[in-house]
Design a protein that fits this description.
- This protein is mainly α.
- It folds into two domains: 295 residues, no CATH class; 75 residues, Metalloproteases ("zincins"), catalytic domain (Zincin-like).
- 72% of the residues lie in helices and 4% in strands.
- A four-stranded mixed beta sheet has the order 1-2-4-3.
- Helix 3 packs antiparallel against helix 4 and helix 9 runs antiparallel to helix 10.
Amino acid sequence: MPQKLSRPVIPANRQLKANRFARIGRRLSFFKAVLFTALLILLTFSGFSSKIIIYLGLPQITAAIVYALILTLAYWVLATPFDFYKGFVLARRYGLSNQGFGSWLGGYIQSVLLVSTLVIAVVATAFWAISILPEMWWLLVWGILMIVSLVLNLLLPGIIIPRFYRTRPLDDEELKQRFYSLLKKAGVSVKGIYTIEFSSKQTTANAALVGIGGGKRILLSDTLLADYSGEEIEAVIAHELGHLKNRDGAGIFSFQALIIFACLWITAVSVGSLAVPLGYSGIGDVALLPLMALVFAIINMVFTPVSNAVMRSFETAADDFAIRLTGNPSAYISMITKLMRQNLAEVNPPLWVEFLLYDHPGYFRRISYARNFMREKTENSE
């Protein structure tokens, strides 16, 4: 018999606080993007980019690596004040983080190094591909990126995530029994269920299905395990199993691969067409790197609403699976409400924000779906 759950409530002052936090975050992201976009435009159309390459006087691929390093450093110089204010100052002010400055800085530097290494490697690969396959270089780069993406997904649960958060197998026997019961009922299998230690850095809660193939595992934050009932955690696990049952990992990978394919192809065609009219020698001119980055970013931004719509459809399907698997929509509603409250998420974001930026359905859409399920279940039982 399911335990009686208290009626989920998000206080009005919490909603106002969440709205302020979200608005500030969007503005910071916007200004950060505008500044770096302005830098790329300036480098491309002022001729300064060509002067840098001439000054470097290096072979093509070496010049591409060095120039990518320069642009990456420039980006982090511009981005760090915004990231510090949002990720450290605001997160602590709004009660989402308990990190000290040293801990935040250490994690931030690790992220910077990881992202910068990947970006520089992609640029080096692109200009190497241009040197050997000038007409179809983008296709070669796409293929290599897909392989790298698979490798990163393989390394994510065992190597990458533990660099930022400690993980350990779940040790709660009651929850493990619930987990195995849900696995059997869902007809799926995973490597295991693990606890990820969020509490050392933040107060938010989350869960995720990570890994590929036989290495898939479910991660539950210790902040979630500490504050949620067994039925609510069961709803979380069921949602993640929904992603597994629906093969969303493969679906997301395939769709993102399609988006990257389109972005690279359009970038190659656009930059190739603009190179000579803008005074560059051709697609192999390393001085075109800022324009490549700019065009790729713009195209990716155009595709983002489509990508988010697809992601929202996956999340809705996982919600449906979780509610049907557990047969406990009230626990699902309670869980989602707690997550929204704890993570200081917007309960009712503007429609344009949800359409353009959200990869999960809005709160009211999710609980309305669960309430409709409850209503249908009640009507069918009468």
